[in-house]
Design goal:
globular, single chain, 5-stranded parallel sheet, Rossmann fold, alpha/beta
């Protein structure tokens, strides 16, 4: 990897899912140079990684105003995270609540590791903004998705790397219906359709059937949340936030 000279630059944590895809469009609308970063940590739904390049390619084709801003893509092997995690995201086990009260889809330390590695790459590349799809409005209570966690992490990373990174979480206070609305605001119906068809959210990696709201099993917490948000977005209603 070589260092970029861009001053107005961002690195987006891009998994291939709805939230990170919307964040990518958000960043491209604001920054002159945007790169993407994905992680292979042995996730059960690693089909999301296969969606990343297709989404990037379609985005450049359908939105030429963003094409020249979209830079390199980085993929990091983080299999060690999957090796030390015993969760429904990294094991073929039933999704349920754990003894801690959190769903067993919670991968301890995941977002902390993601952002730390992102900062190291951004430091080398000369990128100034780190963008993630963390949200504590529609979420399952994951502590590493909270605004306080991200603010604290920004301070820690800047102290530890003697830098001035800005951690942006544009979805932090949006529900899933608002996330669909944000996509429409950024790229109209074309972007909404691209997110609907080209991204993946389903925890179990089901991608056989295309529903009105996208691909997925329709039964896991991620599918239910995405479906509920899409239906509320189409009807113009607000979603009542409930843990899933």
């Amino acid at each position: 990897m070589t260092r970029t000279d861009a001053k107005d630059s961002a690195l987006v944590l891009f998994s291939g899912g709805q939230d990170s895809a919307t964040c990518l469009a958000w960043a491209l609308d604001r920054y002159t140079s945007v790169e993407t970063l994905g992680f292979d940590y042995g996730q059960r739904h690693r089909v999301e990684l296969e969606c990343r390049e297709g989404f990037r390619t379609s985005l450049k084709q359908q939105f030429p105003q963003w094409a020249e801003r979209l830079g390199e893509d980085h993929m990091i092997d983080l299999s060690v995270l999957g090796a030390i995690s015993d969760t429904a995201m990294t094991r073929e086990i039933e999704i349920e609540a754990s003894a801690s009260g959190l769903p067993n889809t919670f991968v301890p330390g995941r977002n902390l590791m993601f952002m730390t590695i992102a900062a190291a790459i951004a430091y080398r590349r000369g990128l100034t903004v780190l963008v993630g799809g963390m949200c504590e409005t529609d979420f399952s209570g994951y502590p590493d998705c909270r605004d306080d966690t991200m603010k604290s992490l920004q301070i820690t990373l800047n102290l530890g790397m003697d830098s001035r990174f800005l951690l942006e979480t544009p979805l932090m206070w949006l529900d899933k219906a608002d996330t669909w609305r944000l996509a429409e605001q950024l790229g109209g119906e074309a972007l909404v359709e691209l997110v609907r068809v080209e991204t993946h959210t389903c925890y179990v990696g089901e991608r056989a059937e295309l529903h009105e709201w996208g691909f997925g099993c329709g039964q896991c917490p991620a599918c239910k949340l995405r479906k509920r948000g899409y239906e509320a977005y189409k009807s113009g209603e607000q979603v009542t936030t409930e843990p899933v």
